[in-house]
Amino acid sequence: MKYYKNGRFGGKYDSIAALSLLDILKWKLFSGTLFASKREEPYTLEVKDETERLHMKEDFICWLGHASFLIQLGGKRLLVDPVLGNIPFYKRHTPSPYSADMLGRIDHLLLTHTHYDHFDTASLKQLLPRSSHACIPLKMGKLLRKIDTTVPYTELDWYRTYTDEGMKITFVPAKHWGRRGVFDKNRVLWGGFVIAYGGTTLYIAGDSAPGDHFEAIGEAFDIDMALLPIGAYSPRVIMKHNHMTPQEAYDAFKALRAKVMVPMHYGTFKLSDEPMDEPLAWMKEIVEGTPHRIEFLIPGKIWMI
Question: What is the domain partition of the chain in residue ranges?
Answer without folding.
Answer: 8-36+46-304
